[in-house]
Amino acid sequence: MAVAARTDLAFQQCIAPACGATFSIDEVLTSCPSCGNLLDVTYDWDRLPAPSSFEVFERKWMRRSDPLALSGVWRFHELLPFAPRESVVTIGEGQTLLSVSDGVGRYVGMNAGQLHLQYEGLNPSGSFKDNGMSAAFSHARMIGATRAACASTGNTSASLAVYCAVTRLMRGIIFIGSGKISYGKLSQALDYGALTIQITGDFDDAMARVKEVASKMGIYLVNSVNPFRLEGQKTIMFRVLESLGWEVPDWIVVPGGNLGNSSSFGKAFAELRHLGLIDRIPRLAVINAAGANTLHELFHNRGLRWNGGHTDLAPVCHYYDELDRDGKRADTLASAIEINRPVNLNKCLRALEVCDGVVREVSEQEILDAKAQVGAGGLGCEPASAASVAGARKLVNEGVIGRDDRVVCILTGHQLKDPNATVAYHTTDQKLFNEVLGSRGVSRASYANRAVSVGNRFDEIVQAIDLYS
Ligand code: F0G
Known about the structure:
This protein folds into three domains: 10-43, no CATH class; 97-125 and 229-421, 3-Layer(aba) Sandwich (Rossmann fold), CATH 3.40.50; 126-225, Rossmann fold, CATH 3.40.50. 39% of the residues lie in helices and 14% in strands. The protein is built from 17 helices and 13 strands. α4 (129-143) packs across α8 (227-243) and α13 (364-376) crosses α14. Ligand F0G binds at residues 127, 129, 152-156, 224, 255-261, 336-337, 382, 384-385, 412-413.
């Protein structure tokens, strides 16, 4: 099946129904020039050779020598048909796994066989960001960009850096907040050779600044305000469906930071339903860390809704004014989602409407306990990712998620992204625990697997093994 290379079959469109302005995919935009809202990549599905069944994707598994069939993103090229084949950039992203985890399921309160973990830590840079980065790089290649920038809490920067290093298509420029990025992620950006600029301030400051710099200097921006990036992230849902034999689960549970994933998932399901490939849409649960809970505050407590695109943005402005007035900054150990001004807020509201979604917040304690359970289940993740499992547990406790529902929690990033939090949780060193976790309100490590210290003596070691194994 051919993918359209014609630019009139794919275009950029303002998400506000009252505006709906359209722009060519050849333009580099991060917001609507007419009204300032976010942009979608929209397709003329009536004129595109869209697939009539999922079989076309399954058949591609037989052609794994073709890099586009091997990629977990571009295997679904027909569902993100903005780039001609020759422009596609892939480094083998998206070869990720969905697995049932009864151990984690028990912790969450689910019956056996119902809790699934979608492990995006298996991507080349160790997080889900590579799904979107391959799509953004493909667009950047189409328009001939030579420099790309992002603000990041660490994973976007690691992803940008690895795509620059492998493809040599662009020079990568990274903006990070001071002391706000875990060493695992920082080490990736440095090792892959990206220009790393640490600014005073946090992610929200870095995000505002990189938008300004990128626009004034004509640098291609790869944050998730770039609508092409979110096209790549839709494929996480395609792979979930593929792994479930194309059956739609009851719930997708995802951590919420800048709200790109949740936005792209909503778009993916709306498009699949439009194409007649699915007949129902799963419910979406977006989970904030309590220390970075803008979505939860606005959606859950202050009634902010998409409302068919007629969002009343007054509560958002009011809330941001309150944050400024009180000098309140995002603050969580789940540094990947330490964000108070999520750039995709409007799109996420739309996704919550499409998916009959809910929003919850989880504490640092809940995140770290859930993370330990995920690790014990065999798929280690970073703290932000564990918010999905902690959120699912909360929703089961509340009776919102049923014990027999089929639930997919997205594990967004690899365990090794942030080893400090893991070691501090499992440590026997109370000082270290207090410094890293106690200071953030974590009072106990209920699921700690503590190292056993013994002298280097045969009999002591044997005794320890006998005692503990
Ligand atoms: N989980 C991880 C591991 C992340 O790195 C991020 C975002 C999220 C969840 C939140 O996803 O923004 O789609 O809601 N990290 C960004 C970064 C902000 O710069 O790496 P979202």
